[in-house]
Amino acid sequence: MARRSTASFFARAYERNLKALTKLTLSNGKRVAGQVQRATAKRLKPPPGKGDWLSGMAMGAGGARGYHLFRPADLVLQPGEKLPLLVMLHGCGQTGRDFAASTRMNALAVRERFLVLYPEQDRIAHPQGCWNWYERRSGKADAEAATLMAAVDQACMLYPVDRDRVAVVGLSAGASMAALLATRYANRFRAVVMHSGVAPGAAKSSATALGAMRGQHVPPMPVTAVGKAMGAAAVFSTLPPLLVLHGDADAVVAPSNAVSSAAVWATAVGAHAGLPRDLQRGQRRAMRVTDFKRQGRTLVSLCEIAGLDHSWSGGARGLLFSDPIGPDATRMAWAFAAAQFKRPR
Known about the structure:
Blueprint: H1 2-44, E1 51-60, E2 63-72, E3 83-89, H2 96-103, H3 105-112, E4 115-119, H4 140-158, E5 161-171, H5 173-184, E6 191-195, H6 206-213, H7 223-230, E7 242-247, H8 256-269, E8 272-273, E9 277-279, E10 287-294, E11 297-305, E12 312-313, E13 322-323, H9 329-341
Parallel strand pairs: 3-4, 3-5, 5-6, 6-7, 7-11, 12-13
Antiparallel strand pairs: 1-2, 2-4, 8-10, 9-10, 10-11
Helix pairs in contact: 4-5
């Protein structure tokens, strides 16, 4: 009887423990599933802006990449009318939706009537969601650039895009990829905006990319070296105008990259620096602006922003990589691009 009682006791205890474990597992499973569901819903939820958040997928040499296109609401187009397109390349640790929310470019697109394309890096291609702008030696960067161009081409086919009014804007790794796109496909873009990016041609591999981010390997280069460094296939005088934005308190990408980016680009297009001027609006951070001109036209503009870290200047409050008190980089990027759209090629 003692043996039966002992066995029965252990059986009942085992059964109770099994039920408790099952209940706990199911509870944790529901909690985890709920977290995943909420995270997925947040990721899929359209960012602020009155319009359509349209999903797509592009295939190219670098594989498949998803994207979203923002189309302002209540667009009434005249027969045959086409709209400008801004291609927005997010930084590391961001998604296209994050970038849209931080920059608030969609709200500006509603007011100014243009389309916005947000390509999305695949975490399989890079665990941190960075664009592989630096993998020139292996060919991965050029392949990824080709896939991004496939996304641009797809947007141009599916939506009323004016192919003569396309500009590319990027933050951090997105800025460096924007520069690569503009050098590889110079005739496809009318303007390029680099915000907190590494200077063109400063890296060819992951090892040299880290050094370039710290400000190494990026001194202004002589004109004979520019071609090889930037890897451009086109005649350099055809490079689109460049706007460079960078904070002087950036601890992720050294501010010297901004100066080098402007110098390399200006050398390539034959532009010369004018006198820097200091600007400040209200309580926003001050910035120093240097324009590089050729025959009276600004082809490169360098904006060094005081006290700004590795963040989108003037971005939405409370988001990563977003500084609300900096000069409004969103307006500056659009104004710079729009000015180029008005000029003949």
